Amino acid sequence: MASISPLERHAFLLRRLHSLTGIAPIGLFLVSHLLTNSSIVWGLMDSRKAVHGHGGVATFQHEVDFIHSIPFLLIIEVFGLWLPIAFHAALGVYYARSGKANTARYAYQSNWRYRLQRISGYVGILFIFYHVATLRWGWTFLVPGGATWSGEAAASTMALALQGAETGITGAGLAVSIAYMLGVSLLVFHFANGLWTAAITWGVTVSAPAQRRWGFVCAGIGAGMMLMAWSAVIGFATLDVKEARGTEQSLQTGHTPGPQIAETLPQLMPAAASGGH
Amino acid sequence: MTSTHTQAHASAAARKAAANRVNAKPGRKVFVRILRCDGPGQPSRWETFSVTIERGANVISCLQQIAANPITSDGTRSTPVVWDSGCLEEVCGACTMVINGKVRQSCSCLIDDHAPTEGDTITLEPMSKFPVVRDLWVDRSRLFHNLKRVKAWVPIDGTYALGPGPSESAESQEQRYVMSTCMSCGCCLEACPQFNVEPDPAAWDTAFVGAHALNQARLFNQHETGRRMKGERLDALMGTGGVNDCGNAQNCVKVCPKLIPLTESIAVIGRATTIHAFARWFSGK
Ligand code: SF4
Ligand code: SF4
Ligand code: FES
To answer: B188 alpha carbon to ligand 2 midpoint, in Å?
Structure first.
């Protein structure tokens, strides 16, 4: 046999690492990231946060502050996130090139998912790059209206980056918001479908009924994540930037959580206060 | 307990075919459109022939009519169409071709099911994943080469008698029976998006083995004597072109004429390689 490339020598290890990195850390991060970002909607249900104005804005700020309080954040980001994503993406493109989609002739649902898994991978790479470059690395020339995302005013600057102007969504802002909607939806699909195929790859689900059952579980996980993803994008794309800024200012000034919340709690949550047991 | 997908798919197609069969009138004329090619490396061209359909006609009987009278529907004299076949009862796999866009055996393909009305057209193409020998006849050497890659046999050759082999449980026999019905037809490879044309035989060893080989590896890994080579089979399937090259499109299981639970076999090999890799990591060399 002629010379073997390292890619071939470690074929099995690389394939399984590719599968593994898709679930952890990348998939787990995606879940937590969507949970954080959809707090712009589910935060509205937290009445304690509403004392500062918009409950979603306050909750999202709280979540962002927590993440920024994690020590060695940059190191975690680089080694726990960016490198695994780069690895998964590079190998994914390399692997995807060995296939030739044939959904035109064999239009089975599983064959469509095979094809969509590859399309969502390609689009996902572009989307993640845009997302990180504009919001994390500050490539503001790619942002409509040129907004810079700031951890101190997390929700208002995020809304600005999606909407393009303080006065409401612009044409360019709409385009970016739609691109976000598409990007996150494809990534959620990629993760949920990847979770389904990983179980076959590793040999966890073997029989056809087992694969079907796990398919329903993955679809459920995907639907839940889709809900979070859409709430996040729609939440920020429709957020009133000025109101969000007001809430953020209220959080920065005179914000001492403990007693203040204790005082306001009974008025805001009469049911909870009176119905204690 | 085989694939429920396969059965659901088969019954949907079967229902349509049965409905067509009721309406089909014998003596009607049907067009047979064929993708022809004079030999390896030659360009392909379409030719259409008009054929009178008798009751129970199948694709092969139409090809025989065309061979006897190779005049195209526009009156031009052509050459007899070449195809491969053997058993004529869907057990040898030789007559596999792409009929109306889907891969299947031509001997068991009834014209009534697919072209029930006067003037209907039925389209025949050679399989696209194997080199064409001539017209509808392809060279499936790579399929057999890939069975060698996974050592799809039982090791009994030697210089002395080995005595009777170990007995096999009825349950295992039942499981393995359906796997053993593979006729090496190539349908699963033709429909697989991960199994693609590889003209250079030197590259066959690192290109995807295909669902049929993965299923045969499972068949022989589970055989009481065949399992002695399980490690070698798994080593081969852990490399480039092995089980990990499957992209889980699951077309293979839907087109397999023998209803072999191919995706189950793929997952069994996936599990076996996972275990094999850990075993090798902790206790191997
Ligand atoms: S499941 Fe794997 S072997 Fe079967 S068609 Fe899909 S990619 Fe090919
Ligand atoms: S596994 Fe099925 S489709 Fe594939 S070669 Fe065997 S019989 Fe044909
Ligand atoms: S001739 Fe043997 S399967 Fe058709």
So the answer is: 6
Neighbour tally for B4: CB within 10 Å? 14
Which residues 61-120 in chain A show a CB within 8 A of chain B?
Answer: 98-102, 105-106, 108, 110-111, 113-115, 117
ipTM of the complex: 0.91
Burial of B76 (0-12, 13-18, 19+ CB in 10 A): exposed
- Domain span at residue B236 reads 140-283
A122, exposed or middle or buried, with CB in 10 Å at 0-12, 13-18, 19+?
Answer: middle
- Name the minimum distance, in Å, from the CA of A1 to any CA of chain B: 10
- List CB contacts of B244: < 8 A, sequence separation 6 or more: A11, A12, A15, A16, A201, B238, B273
Q: How far apart are CA A142 and CA A62, in angstroms?
A: 27
Instruction: Identify the bridge partners of residue B30 per DSSP, sorted by sequence position.
Output: B51
* CA A243 – CA B115 distance, rounded (Å): 67
Of B1, B102, B193, the CB nearest to A100: B193
Ramachandran area for residue B56 (φ above 0: left; ψ -120 to 50: alpha; else beta)? left
CA dihedral sign of residues B238, B242, B245, B248 = negative
Among B107, B130, B179, B188, residue to substitute to test ligand 2 (most atoms within 8 Å of Cβ): B188
B21 SS3 class: helix
Task: Write out pLDDT tens, residues A174-215.
Answer: 999 999 999 999 999 999 999 999 999 999 999 999 999 999
Predicted TM-score of the model (pTM): 0.91
What pLDDT, in 10s, does the model give residues A208-264? 999 999 999 999 999 999 999 999 999 999 999 999 999 999 999 855 444 444 444
> Does residue B131 sit in the same domain as residue B146?
no
**What is d(CA A123, CA A128) in angstroms, rounded to the nearest whole number?**
9
8 Å CB contact between B237 and A175: no
Residues B130 and B220 in one domain: no
Q: Strands B96-99 and B44-52, how do they pair?
A: unpaired
Same domain, B25 and B73: yes
DSSP H or E run through B134: strand B132-134
Total count of domains within chain A: 1
Instruction: State whether the beta carbon of B85 lies less than 6 angstroms from ligand 3.
Output: yes
Residues B236 and B271: beta-carbon distance below 8 Å? no
Q: What is the DSSP string of A170-235?
A: -HHHHHHHHHHHHHHHHHHHHHHHHHHHHHHHTTSS-SHHHHHHHHHHHHHHHHHHHHHHHHHHHH
Q: Verify that B174 and B64 share a domain, yes or no.
A: no
In whole angstroms, give the CA distance from residue B207 to residue B129. 12
Tell me phi and psi for residue B123, to 5 degrees: -105, 130
Q: Facing residues of B35 across strands?
A: B46
| Domain contains A271 | no
Report the C-alpha gap between A120 and A195 in whole angstroms. Answer: 14
Does any ligand 1 atom lie closer than 6 A to the CB of residue B247? yes
List phi, psi (to 5°) of B126. -70, 160
Determine the Cα–Cα distance for residues A218 and A192; give it in Å rounded to an integer: 5
